[in-house]
């Protein structure tokens, strides 16, 4: 059965518009993925997962110690503008109580940067295949980050936390401390990873459902040239 010229032109126009839309959404998805990968580096290295709260500093007595704590480093406020920090990422040794959390965040970071590097596969594989690979990597990153955020409060009953937050600290009880922006950013990263993975699956499925096989390579080339 032959296809009318008008229908063929309409189909070709639809495919062209689809390729343009997919390219725009794909570029936005790739930029967001790169930003999230950079944010994960900040989450890993910053000693701002938890710290002394404002309530402690406004109490009747002077605080014994004031500072912040991360996975690799404990920073205590001093008379100098720069806090006195112990530990650091340069030693590649996280604080003993947060080793498992640091490993999970590291695996999540590896998965996200691997998905960023997988963008190079657009030149060699179909766009749908690359989207699916990146989606699974992003799901892995979000899952590991979620486990890290769950295990972190369970590890608060540690010598470092007791020295910073007082003897009332315990598992899921920060004592005289409160969570800081790095931990909140990690929680938001879980949602971000889920959104990126969902968008990647949607783009992959639309590539498979709407584009004929002979146009997938063309779409991949357009996405790489954007």
From TrEMBL:
<dbReference type="Pfam" id="PF10242">
    <property type="entry name" value="L_HMGIC_fpl"/>
</dbReference>
<keyword id="KW-0472">Membrane</keyword>
<protein>
    <recommendedName>
        <fullName>LHFPL tetraspan subfamily member 4b</fullName>
    </recommendedName>
</protein>
<dbReference type="GO" id="GO:0007605">
    <property type="term" value="P:sensory perception of sound"/>
</dbReference>
<feature type="transmembrane region" description="Helical">
    <location>
        <begin position="134"/>
        <end position="153"/>
    </location>
</feature>
<keyword id="KW-0812">Transmembrane</keyword>
<keyword id="KW-1133">Transmembrane helix</keyword>
<dbReference type="InterPro" id="IPR019372">
    <property type="entry name" value="LHFPL"/>
</dbReference>
<feature type="transmembrane region" description="Helical">
    <location>
        <begin position="181"/>
        <end position="204"/>
    </location>
</feature>
<dbReference type="GO" id="GO:0005886">
    <property type="term" value="C:plasma membrane"/>
</dbReference>
<feature type="transmembrane region" description="Helical">
    <location>
        <begin position="101"/>
        <end position="122"/>
    </location>
</feature>
<feature type="transmembrane region" description="Helical">
    <location>
        <begin position="21"/>
        <end position="43"/>
    </location>
</feature>
